[in-house]
């Protein structure tokens, strides 16, 4: 096929352009007898008819199962090493009251990174003790709110926050449990990690400074040290970077034990997912085994007990269970050097998924309203924004008879899509619908034109 010349090297022409790779699609995704995509027991055309497009769809049972599997994987490995593990769901990936409750019911805690995320978690009924509060530039109001709500931990991002949080706790008459965020010098992304002595980034303190900051924490009666915290990156496929980072942290952790209790070690989140069939992330139980084994081995070498471990996965809990549904509009075959590129434009775009534009992220697209035997054709799925970088799927294959009015689904959009959404070109944000056991319900209402007008202070009644 002429189009193959312009396809990226990693992309394979599918034997069946209707196939749904189980690693990429929600656990319940399949095609019914008519060939239509069904998620959580609900057909794509039913969802579009009821809620319109674009639409975010979340497989509730898959989110719950992934949350439970993460806790089981890290918990069982940690217990086998004589300790235990806490798993915090990183709410920045996607936070609504329903999702907060699902993950808490699965036994997870929640990591929030702003006053807004804290407010949603509390409003959802998440026990404050199960909340970890993050942020590299927390406001006084955020600190006061977190302390008075009784959050289980605050992750201190630097020396200045020691006194700010200690003072707030003193004023509230409580002892606040805290972690100290450090830079281990390890950065990881997919299969590669890079380890340096120093880090040029805004989060945390250099590992070498940790003992001094911990001494300051221990000097304040209103603070209780839980331990060190580190987050080495996101979309990481194997255990190597975590192991390297943990080993670096444990050397300091052991040093800190000489001065008092250090019950926990938080290794952050960042576990990768498959966005396309070319991605091959390590399953969570294997990751847990690799990471906990490295920790246990280093603790034995240092002659210290294995601390309670904490992790903060976001993407790997909520990413794969989510899809985005769009309706196909304009289709153009554009001559480009080396072939013809078929641009398939849909009714959403970078406002509902900024990740391709922000990070060059790859995604998978399939026909959702029907299956087709037509030969696969390379397509680029574009949005409807006034910007040439408004691309949802840079390259994938759809049946060659794809036409206006078809529904298409983009896989693995549950994390960092709704969370990063905008009103660019004054598009209204789509609704988020949870599907399970053949039932669909809105968990975040979509915006309407009235919502867009409501905040414009220049629009007057009756005009
Ligand atoms: N913990 C901390 C301290 C974090 O900063 C993050 C993500 C996580 C946990 C969760 O990481 P996850 O398991 O979801 O990879 N917007 C980017 C990702 C930014 C991640 C920021 N921090 C994206 O769409 O790829």
TrEMBL record:
PROSITE patterns: ODR_DC_2_1 (PS00878). It comes from the Bacteria. One of its GO terms (molecular function) is pyridoxal phosphate binding. Pyridoxal 5'-phosphate binds at residues 270, 312-315, 416. Transmembrane segments: none annotated. Gene3D superfamilies: Alanine racemase (3.20.20.10), Lyase, Ornithine Decarboxylase, Chain A, domain 1 (2.40.37.10). Substrate binds at residues 315, 355, 359, 387, 416. Its EC number is 4.1.1.20. The keyword Lyase applies. The active site is at residue 386. SUPFAM superfamilies: Alanine racemase C-terminal domain-like, PLP-binding barrel. It catalyses: meso-2,6-diaminopimelate + H(+) = L-lysine + CO2. The keyword Lyase applies. It is an enzyme of class 4 (lyase). Keywords: Amino-acid biosynthesis, Decarboxylase, Lyase, Lysine biosynthesis, Pyridoxal phosphate. Residues 63-318 form the Orn/DAP/Arg decarboxylase 2 N-terminal domain. Specifically catalyzes the decarboxylation of meso-diaminopimelate (meso-DAP) to L-lysine. Belongs to the Orn/Lys/Arg decarboxylase class-II family. LysA subfamily. PANTHER family: DIAMINOPIMELATE DECARBOXYLASE (PTHR43727), GROUP IV DECARBOXYLASE (PTHR43727:SF2). Homodimer. This is Diaminopimelate decarboxylase.
């Amino acid at each position: 096929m002429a189009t193959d010349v312009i396809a990226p090297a990693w992309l394979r022409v599918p034997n069946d352009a209707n196939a749904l790779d189980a690693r990429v699609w929600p656990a319940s995704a399949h095609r019914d007898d008519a060939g239509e995509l069904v998620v959580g027991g609900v057909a794509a055309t039913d969802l579009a008819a009821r809620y319109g497009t674009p639409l975010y769809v979340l497989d509730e049972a898959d989110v719950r199962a992934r949350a439970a599997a993460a806790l089981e994987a890290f918990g069982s490995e940690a217990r086998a090493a004589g300790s235990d593990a806490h798993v915090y769901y990183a709410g920045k990936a996607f936070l609504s009251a329903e999702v907060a409750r699902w993950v808490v019911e699965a036994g997870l805690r929640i990591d929030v990174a702003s006053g807004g995320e804290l407010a949603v978690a509390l409003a959802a009924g998440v026990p404050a003790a199960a909340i970890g509060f993050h942020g590299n530039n927390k406001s006084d109001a955020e600190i006061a709110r977190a302390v008075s709500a009784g959050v289980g931990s605050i992750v201190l991002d630097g020396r200045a926050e020691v006194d700010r949080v200690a003072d707030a706790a003193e004023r509230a008459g409580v002892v606040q449990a805290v972690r100290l965020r450090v830079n281990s010098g390890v950065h990881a992304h997919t299969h590669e990690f890079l380890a340096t002595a120093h880090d040029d980034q805004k989060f945390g303190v250099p590992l070498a400074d940790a003992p001094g900051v911990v001494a300051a924490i221990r000097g304040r009666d209103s603070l209780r040290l839980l331990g060190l915290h580190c987050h080495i990156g996101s979309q990481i496929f194997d255990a190597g970077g975590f192991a390297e980072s943990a080993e670096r942290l444990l050397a300091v952790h052991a040093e800190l034990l000489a001065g008092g209790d250090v019950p926990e070690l938080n290794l952050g989140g960042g576990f990768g997912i498959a966005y396309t069939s070319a991605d091959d992330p390590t399953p969570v139980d294997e990751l847990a085994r690799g990471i906990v084994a490295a920790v246990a081995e280093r603790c034995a070498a240092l002659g210290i007990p294995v601390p309670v471990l904490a992790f903060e996965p976001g993407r790997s809990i909520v990413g794969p269970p989510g899809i985005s549904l769009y309706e196909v509009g304009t289709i153009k075959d554009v001559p480009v050097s080396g072939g013809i590129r078929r641009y398939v434009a849909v009714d959403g775009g970078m406002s509902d998924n900024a990740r391709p534009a922000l990070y060059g992220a790859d995604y998978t697209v399939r026909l959702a309203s029907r299956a087709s035997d037509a030969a696969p054709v390379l397509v680029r799925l574009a949005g409807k924004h006034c910007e040439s970088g408004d691309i949802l799927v840079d390259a994938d294959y759809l049946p060659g008879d794809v036409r206006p009015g078809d529904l298409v689904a983009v896989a693995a959009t549950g994390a960092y899509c709704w969370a990063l959404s905008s009103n660019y070109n004054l598009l209204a944000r789509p609704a988020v619908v949870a599907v399970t056991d053949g039932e669909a319900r809105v968990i975040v209402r979509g915006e309407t034109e009235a919502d867009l007008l409501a905040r414009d202070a220049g629009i007057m009644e009756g005009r």
